[in-house]
Structure formats: structure tokens, C-alpha cells
Amino acid sequence: MQNRLFPYYKEGLIEAGCDEAGRGCLAGPVFAAAVILSVDFFHPLLNDSKKLSEKNRYLLREYIEQNALAFAVGSVDNELIDKINILNASFLAMHIAIEQLSIKPQLLIIDGNRFNKYNKIPHKCIIKGDSLYQSIAAASILAKTYRDDFMKNQHMLFPQYAWNKNMGYPTKLHRERIKMHGISPLHRKSFSMGNDQLSFDFENNS
């Protein structure tokens, strides 16, 4: 397996790749990461987090954190998600991550097709950017693994929802447990908790 992702979108600029994890969940925060990589950064396994095994995601997280020029992770909890909606919460989580970067980026490259402008930094939205650009792929890995860690910890407090397996996504088991136990303080009240999407595949969704 060989990493064929692009090292940058625009040569000569300090770029931060941004991505989120947990937008489609019924419970828990949405997480986002911003990552600045050098042009010679390379790891053969680097890819969109959804295309990687859990083992390789954590292996890559360690490598990214040791070798990135700068990285940061932000999150927005379920209560604020309910107030401002999940799309705006995803953008806010990215803004929080960008704000924490130790290096100020000159360009933001965002996974997806929409973004709320952050200060005066130019940005470019790129559909499937986490499969195209190294910094966005790296951000997807950090966002995913940090969110997974959060949900696994919360599973210890709320084991009835099996968050250690579904990470808060609307799997059949998760919805069945909601029917049995009701919602927890971490569930998003603005989301449908019903039985639609019973076959939801959380590994292939953000």
C-alpha cells in the first residue's frame, strides 16, 4: 500500500487541512482537527480515516503528532449541537482547532463542500479531500481517533448503549438500546432517535 495523496493544494503557502468526525452520530460531541504538514511529510499508510483499520488509525495518529509542523483538535458538545445545528457545530469545532494551531496558516483546505469563513484566512472546500490531500487525511485521523477515545471513555459511564462498538452512530443496536433505556445526557435531542437507518454503517460515515 502506497500513499499517493497530494502534499499540498497550493505550493508555497502554509496550509492547514481540516476535517471533522461524528457529524452523523446520535450521541456525543462532534470533533474536528486542523493539521499543518511539511511538503516532504510521508507515511505509506496515510489515507482517509474511514479507509483505515482502527490499528492503523492509532499508529498514524502517533506518527502525525510526532512529525506534523502543527496540529490541534477541537470539539463541540451535544448541547451546543442542539442549539446551533450540527453543520454549524462542525464548522465551530474546526474553528476551535484552527485557533489552537501554534503556526498561523495562510490557507485552509476543508473536507467537504461548505465552511464558515474563519477570520480572514482564505479557504478552499474540497469534496472527498480526505482522500486527496495529506493534511486533510491527517486531520480526519486525529478527529476520528480523539472522538473514538472520548466515546470509549463515556461507554464506561453509559455501557447500556454499547458506545465502545458504535461510537454513538445510529446502528441498529444503538437505536434498540435507546428504545430500551431512553436517552442519556450525551444524546443529541435534535436528532431522530427512531428506527430509520437501522443498517447505518458508521465506519463509512463521518
Descriptive account of the structure:
This protein has a domain of 139 residues: Nucleotidyltransferase, domain 5 (2-Layer Sandwich). The chain has 206 residues and is an alpha/beta fold. 36% of the residues lie in helices and 15% in strands. Strands 3-2-1-4-5 form a 5-stranded mixed β-sheet. The protein is globular, with a radius of gyration of 17 Å. The chain contains 6 helices and 5 strands, in the order ββαβααββααα.
Quick structural gist:
With 206 residues, this protein is of the alpha/beta class. It contains 6 helices and 5 strands, in the order ββαβααββααα.
Rg from alpha-carbon coordinates: 17 Å
Helix content: 25-40%
Q: What portion of residues belong to β-strands?
A: 5-15%
Q: Any idea what the CATH superfamily of the domain at 15-153 is called?
A: Ribonuclease H-like superfamily/Ribonuclease H
How is the biggest beta sheet arranged?
5 strands, mixed
Point out poorly predicted stretches.
196-205
Mean pLDDT: 93
CATH topology of the domain at 15-153: Nucleotidyltransferase, domain 5
Which class of the domain at 15-153 in CATH terms?
A: Alpha Beta
User: How are the strands of the largest sheet arranged?
Assistant: 3-2-1-4-5
Shape: globular
How far from one another are the termini?
Answer: 23 Å
Q: Give the helix/strand class.
A: alpha/beta
